[in-house]
Amino acid sequence: MLEIKNLHAEVEGNKILRGINLTINPGEIHAIMGPNGSGKSTLSYVLAGKEDYEITEGEILFNGENVLEMEIDERAAAGLFLAMQYPIEIPGVANMTFLKTALNAQRVARGEGELKTPDFMKKVKELSAKLNVTQEMLRRPLNVGFSGGEKKRNEILQMALLEPKLCILDETDSGLDIDALRIVSEGVNALKSPERSMLVITHYQRLLNYIVPDVVHVMYKGQIVKTGDKSLALELEEKGYAEFTGEVAA
Amino acid sequence: MAAVKETVDQVKQIDVDQYKYGFVTDIESEKAPLGLNEDVIRFISAKKHEPEWMLEWRLDAYRRWLTMEEPTWAKLDYPKPKFNEIYYYSAPKVAEGPKSLDEVDPELLKTYAKLGIPLQEQEILAGVTEENRQYSKVAVDAVFDSVSVATTFKEELKKAGVIFCSISEAIREHPELVKKYLASVVPVSDNFYATLNSAVFTDGSFVYVPEGVRCPMELSTYFRINEQNTGQFERTLIIADKGSYVSYLEGCTAPQRDENQLHAAVVELIALEDAEIKYSTVQNWYPGDSEGKGGIYNFVTKRGDCREKNAKISWTQVETGSAITWKYPSCILRGDNSTGEFYSIAISNGYQQIDSGTKMIHLGKNTSSRIISKGISAGRSNNTYRGLVSAHKKAANARNFTQCDSLLIGDQCGAHTVPYVESKSASAIFEHEATTSKISDDQMFYCQARGIGEEEAVALIVNGFVKDVIQQLPMEFAVEAQKLINISLEGSVG
Ligand SMILES: Nc1ncnc2c1ncn2[C@@H]1O[C@H](COP(=O)(O)OP(=O)(O)OP(=O)(O)O)[C@@H](O)[C@H]1O
Ligand SMILES: [Mg+2]
User: What b/e string do you get for B85-120 counting C-beta neighbours within 10 Å, with b at 16 or more?
Assistant: First the structure.
């Protein structure tokens, strides 16, 4: 599904990713943990195609295709989705309009043709009910005035609607209350399938109780410094990152 | 390269190709001699078979105009038009004044068909989507250079008592109404361009809606400048008698030409007691090419008079064309409890310059006004909102709300807001809100990361920005306006 080979990326001359190697097979759930500033969000942005980063070395293959040569929207249409750590506000554009525009743009790009409005409405209604996204939130301008948790739920709604092949979740759990965490996790788990992979970035092992990973990676200073199974997350919860940073956890 | 940076680069390439109305109709025309003098005015008046009083009125305006100077206070930079190198009258040879549709030159019918303006009396398709497929009738007055070539649905309107014809015809057929109302809102010597217009106006529309009548269909005028070196000076006069209602739409296009062409119109609206006039404009004159060469100079005086109590006038404009726009559709709120509204979307791209806004003059008691202005600047354009809200000392409880938003695309364009407020009434409450924003790289990234292409993303964000105003347009034209907005920003994205 996803193959990252020796990926180096920098911003304004600062080296941030320093040789990432990561392979995710179809149906697998991988988690990435790591101290603040280690490059987790950067990796997710580079995958999605954000233009602030310069790729100095390495390659990314998504279902065999060279991702680095694809436009941002082409990556999305190919099935790559990033639930962002900080979702963006767009005044005046109704959430619902945005969802419809995005879904149809992807469908058209894939040659599937636009979804009829009644079918679209039905789908959105179903999914939003599950994720506890209210009708009012669908009518409001995209993310404008949404609380932190509402924004995150809205990201997962987009994800559920767009049915991507690879779901990248960047700290989707931060800002969620206890109930929302459960609702969002259920939403994510409902998307689990043998054809769909996930890359879950988080600081908290708690999320991984809900979304159980097959593989856990530790990222530090732009590299993956350790890889293990789900028990690695528990270990980190207990010991912190001292092993990697050389500092003793407070 | 960041998305917005790329956007800016694309704006630079804005090209004449995108102006899809830039074609020229090959048709034989009859012109007045080049330049302006009393004989040219006599020529125009004679061509229009005008009564003597009208000729005198024009000559009087011309003499006043000779003593006036072109205003320079607007934030506009352009070489002054050479008034003696313009043709003040040009008409397709075959059509002298409006005739029945069968007699209209097929070349003209083709031109309007190409512009998407139906001159056949048929029901036009309004909405585009399957779900809101809806048919409605729109009566059209088509003005080609200096003459009205056709007015549709006249008979049906006549049954309702509505007069909808060219102003030339109104001067001949309804002199009492014209004499009573012409220049009663925009006096002959109001300003340089209005005075020039009074001297040389060639055609335009006339509407009279009698007492208690709700006009049974939308009325619209479609202006087309075709001839080279020809100015268009149209004059529109709309009167809504007591308790009546009319909705009117104006559209305009011109061929792409290297030289600048002058358009100086005067529009006067009069709403009597309990009457309402809704005036919508979709202005799409040729804006000039990528180097800022050519394009229409648009100097327009539009003013409405809520002359009696409970009258309402609302202006809605979508301005995407013209090299230079100088335009301030205004409302005089004379009648007690009268209401004035101004909703505007002004888009400038390339080297376009817009100085536009409104005046809300509160004279009567309990008058209220509302201004929503959305300016979008891209390319190297300059976009200024200039507005005046004033209250006379008798205007007790006058209310105004102004919302003035600017959106910038790129960093080579300018947006300016110049609001003037003058209140002599202690009980007046005027509110003003203004914002300036940019389409950010983050917004672009977010849209694209959801699969929305660059161009569609800009359109989506811009449409969100102008939504409040689009909602004010008659349904029939909202879709069209939206498309036009997307087209005029087409150069601004990959
Ligand atoms: N545009 C930028 N300009 C300069 N530095 C940047 C930029 N983007 C990221 N960085 C730096 O790169 C490093 C990695 O940032 P990133 O956001 O990827 O970390 P993270 O692992 O997601 O951290 P957190 O856990 O706090 O979300 C940080 O030191 C950050 O300051
Ligand atoms: Mg992060």
Answer: ebbbbbbbebbebbeeeeebbeebbebbeebebbbe
Closest-CA residue in chain B for A85? B446
pLDDT per residue as tens digits for the range A40-68? 999 999 999 999 999 999 999 999 999 99
User: What is d(CA A3, CA B339) in angstroms, rounded to the nearest whole number?
Assistant: 65
Count up the domains in chain A and report the number: 1
Residue A250 forms part of a structural domain: no
pTM equals: 0.81
For ligand 1, whether the C-beta of A86 sits within 6 Å is no
Does residue A235 lie in a domain region?
Answer: yes
Of the residues A42, A44, A46, A88, the best mutation for testing chain B's interface (the one with the most B CB atoms within 10 Å of its CB) is A88
Q: Tell me the residue range of the domain where A46 lies.
A: 2-245
Q: With respect to residue A80, please indicate whether it lies within any of the assigned structural domains.
A: yes
Which helix (H) or strand (E) element contains residue B199? helix B192-200
Q: Is the ipTM of this complex over 0.90?
A: yes
Q: The tokens of B463 are what? A: 């449409």
The 3-state DSSP class for residue B426 equals coil
Q: What is the mean pLDDT of residues B265-284?
A: 94
DSSP string, A231-247: HHHHHHHHHTTHHHHSS
Decide if pLDDT at B7 tops 60.
no
Distances in Å between the alpha carbon of B316 and those of A68, B126, B282? 46, 18, 9
Q: Is residue A120 part of a domain?
A: yes
**Contact by Cβ (8 Å): B216, B160:** yes
Taking an 8 Å cut-off on Cβ atoms, the answer to whether B464 and A48 are in contact is no
Q: For tokens 């320079």, name the residue.
A: B72
What CATH number corresponds to the domain at position A182?
Answer: 3.40.50.300
The rounded distance, in Å, linking the Cα atoms of B283 and B289 is 17
